[in-house]
Design goal:
Strand order of the largest sheet of chain A: 2-3-1-4-5
Shape of chain A: elongated
Helix content of chain B: 40-55%
Distance between the termini of chain B: 35 Å
Structural class of chain B: alpha/beta
Strand order of the largest sheet of chain B: 3-4-2-1-5
Largest sheet of chain B: 5 strands, mixed
Number of helices of chain A: 7
Oligomer: heterodimer
Helix content of chain A: 40-55%
Number of strands of chain A: 5
Order of helices and strands of chain A: HHHHEHHEEEEH
Largest sheet of chain A: 5 strands, mixed
Largest interface: A-B, 50 and 62 residues
Number of strands of chain B: 12
Distance between the termini of chain A: 33 Å
Radius of gyration of chain A: 18 Å
């Protein structure tokens, strides 16, 4: 299996930072960075990572099913993660989630038919003091209003990139 | 850019560089006393460093509040095994968003604290376990680590003094349970994040079964000021047995939510009214989650207290991770309890039956209650289920973390559960039904 030179360099670094007899420590970081590049955890990727860290594919599969960010099926190009945990719940996170789900006609960890947008109702993402908060892929958006969320969802569904949707500014 | 404006009542020790231009860079760090503590510590004995941390009365900022200096002293420094430093940057306790800022605005402060911890026990390798969702912070820490290597603060011969210490980041992949120290260690080894039985504690058998200092980000960040200004100085900022300042994350129904650094023992009502700008829309205070979702809730009339570990323990709650969530009078406590339980049911790793089954059944019971189909006997059942998850019946405290807030809500707001009985709709929220994930 071939990866981009950047990802290969990252893998090399991962394998260097753990003791030589502890390569298995690199498994989860490898999986998550590889998923970012190829879209999901494929059978081929499982075999490749297993080979590189020196375990059987079965072991990789056993581990990856534990972690909520590792997906066996591709999520959308823009994975919209809406927090509804306590701090966000108190200030409208649940309403944002319901609106997004209704507008796109998809539910938790589902993808739109064109593969552009997916939704996930996430647990606390560490933005409690600036709630309600969402993440689109790895980008954070704070103090999200209903009007901003609607613009975001409509825009993404219509083929815009998040940075073209000026109502909502990424903070980190 | 700061996410919230600072407050004049803050005592900014750990957050002193927040808001400085280019505060992530080593140039800014060095221009503001950066790495001076390391230079000082490198001339101290291991005993002297540990004693200074003990004198600071610093207690673990992840939530458990264990005295940091004592934890460090448990590491068997004579052991022939390599020693490790592990940083818990898996911040995911609902209500908590402080480690994110400490890393984003001042990564070198954390790195300096980690290196000093390494000196204290003779460790030569450290790792920062950062939750996968905080990808941009992994990039920030990686850049800062590169800068520290380039300037000789990390490497095989730190500051030309013959001391070796290496540091790297490690990405998680989405699991609250991995913020629990022993599950974090399992996850770090490339396994499912399932807790280990203790003892042995990580101090003796941590990373790769070797002696390990494992602390929260904020705990490491407190180390440079402690070494630089002395343990007594840091201790003096707080209350007896509760040294220093801490970052409180104010959220919920207040006017100025934000992360604020305040002395330990700061009064909770003052925190809500003076720092947090009072209740939103002039509503009355109903309840406070004092330190993240794992803590028993306080009723409004219990909130006139000092925010330190011992005072909160006396009030049958916990100071926890610093996540202060403020609830106004029109919050449905049944719905709130349900949301907390949905979280724990989702995050329970499934290893221990009382937690796996308890959280799942409590979620079902609370969902039924919220939908107006609760029965009188269910109120008792929730109490019984909570008891069966508590007090050492599980390998890790997630069972307790799910049971304790629920128990406190049922005890303190029993009338709200009774208001949901016999098909009556939620008195606060007649329109929506929660859809359980």
């Amino acid at each position: 299996m071939t990866f981009s030179p950047e990802l290969e360099a990252r893998f090399e670094k991962f394998l260097a930072i753990y003791p030589t007899d502890r390569k298995r420590s690199a498994m989860i970081p490898m999986l998550i960075y590889a998923q970012d590049e190829i879209g999901s955890i494929t059978d081929e990727l499982i075999d490749e990572v297993a080979k590189r860290v020196g375990v059987t594919p079965h072991v990789v599969n056993e581990v990856l099913t534990y972690y909520s960010m590792l997906h066996r099926k591709p999520m959308g190009k823009y994975h919209v993660q809406i927090c509804t945990n306590i701090s966000c719940l108190l200030v409208g996170g649940e309403e944002l989630w319901n609106k997004a789900s209704h507008k796109l006609g998809i539910g938790h960890k589902e993808v739109t038919a064109d593969g552009r947008v997916s939704l996930e109702e996430v647990e606390c993402i560490g933005a409690c003091s600036w709630a309600p908060a969402i993440q689109v892929n790895y980008d954070f958006y704070h103090d999200v209003t209903m009007a901003q969320l609607e613009k975001l969802i409509d825009g993404l569904a219509a083929g815009k990139r998040p940075e073209e949707i000026t109502e909502l500014v990424k903070v980190a | 850019m700061l996410y919230n404006q600072p407050n004049p009542t803050e005592v900014r020790i750990l957050s002193k560089r927040f808001g400085l231009p280019n505060s992530q860079s080593i140039e800014t760090y060095l221009a503001t006393d950066g790495y001076k503590a390391l230079e000082k510590a490198i001339g101290m004995t291991q005993e002297e460093i540990i004693n200074e941390v003990k004198a600071s009365l610093l207690r673990g900022r992840g939530g458990a509040g264990f005295p940091t200096g004592m934890k460090w002293s448990f590491v068997p420094r004579q052991s022939p095994k390599p020693k490790y430093i592990m940083v818990n940057a898996d911040e995911s306790e609902p209500g908590t968003c402080k480690d994110r800022l400490l890393i984003e605005y001042d990564p070198h402060q954390m790195i300096e604290g980690i290196i000093i911890a390494g000196l204290a026990v003779g460790a030569q390798q450290g790792y920062v376990y950062i939750r996968g969702e905080y990808r941009y912070l992994i990039d920030i820490v990686d850049r800062a680590i590169d800068e520290a290597y380039a300037r000789g603060y990390l490497g095989d011969n730190i500051l030309g003094r013959g001391v070796k210490f290496h540091l790297a980041t490690h990405s998680g992949a989405g699991a609250y349970e991995c913020g629990e120290e022993s599950a974090l260690l399992e996850s770090f080894e490339g396994k499912r994040g399932i807790p280990r039985i203790r003892p042995p504690f990580p101090a003796v058998a941590g990373v790769y079964q070797s002696p390990t200092i494992l602390n929260n980000v904020e705990t490491f960040c407190a180390v440079p000021p402690i070494i630089l200004h002395g343990g007594a100085y840091f201790a003096g900022l707080g209350t007896p047995k509760n040294g220093g300042t801490r970052l409180f994350c104010l959220s919920g129904h207040i006017n100025k939510p934000g992360v604020y650094e305040l002395p330990m023992g700061f009064n909770l009502m003052r925190m809500i009214n003076e720092v947090g700008g009072g209740m939103r829309n002039g509503k009355k205070l109903k309840a406070v989650v004092p330190g993240g979702s794992s803590c028993p809730l306080l009723k409004a009339d219990e909130c006139d207290l000092a925010m330190d570990y011992d005072t909160l323990a006396k009030a049958n709650s916990m100071l926890g991770s610093g996540g202060v969530v403020v609830l106004a009078e029109d919050t449905c406590m049944v719905k709130f309890a349900l949301r907390i339980m949905r979280f724990y049911a989702h995050e329970s790793c499934g290893w221990c039956i009382p937690c796996r089954e308890g959280t799942a059944w409590m979620k079902k019971l609370l969902t039924r209650f919220h939908e107006g189909m609760g029965q009188e006997s269910d109120i008792v059942l929730i109490g019984d289920l909570s008891k069966n998850m508590l007090g050492g019946r599980t390998f890790c405290p997630l069972g307790d973390a799910a049971a304790l807030p629920t128990q406190s809500i049922v005890e303190k707001w029993r009338d709200e559960f009774e208001a949901h009985l016999d098909g009556k709709p939620c008195p606060y929220d007649k329109s929506s039904r929660l859809v359980a994930v």
